[in-house]
Design goal:
Elements (H helix, E strand, L loop, with lengths): L3 H19 L7 E5 L5 H9 L4 E4 L2 H14 L4 E4 L8 H4 L5 E5 L2 H11 L8 E6 L13 H13 L5 E7 L8 H21 L7 E3 L6 H6 L4 E4 L1 H4 L6
Parallel strand pairs: 1-2, 1-8, 2-3, 3-4, 4-5, 5-6, 6-7
Length: 237
Amino acid sequence: MSSIKENVQSIQEKMFNACLRAGRNPESVKLMAVSKFHPQEAVFEAIEAGLDLFGENRVQEAAEKFPEVLEKNPEVSLHLIGSLQKNKVKHIVPLASCIQSVDRFDLAEEIVRQCGKVQRTTPLKLLFEVHTGEDSKAGFTDLDELLRTVEFCEANAGCGIVPAGFMTMAPFTDEEESIRASFRKLVKIRNQVQTRFSALKLDELSMGMSADFEIAIEEGSSLIRVGTAIFGERVYA
């Protein structure tokens, strides 16, 4: 059974090769360890393996697991990558450095409201989740609604937030072209929104997971979210 360190090294090698195939600088892609359903001990082991970026899906689990991790390892960043309910926003805003799952206007409003109540040392980054695959129910499906939400966030950038880019999930399929089409759709939407909001730096593209991160890198991902390939099967649910 491979250790977390061995798994990380294997993934980093695949990332490097994918960047070479795409003619990209390997340093242009970040590796996030998705630690949902894995204990705190596994997070510490991943940190020892050299990782400093983690993603959690559920606010309650993140709040239980990461305060000690962040206190002992101030270089570590935590992203909330799962669906976020408005009543949970107040619990994740003081903890996370980024919320990747901003998928509706009223959620953005609540994030801005809660950011105004806390003293953060750095602004909270926001990624706008876009629906690009039929299997995923989350994410913006209407471009006008997305533009309205980005506009709102730009107007409130002084309230402790930074609109930073986009996130998506490809369909769960073995059909490579369907996966590539999903990622290409996000790149196209990012380009459209960036043209509209030229003052913002919307360059983060969070796309690609354990099964498809090499394809995602080839299509322009700047951040891949890998769980199972690092930690193995879920320990608890």
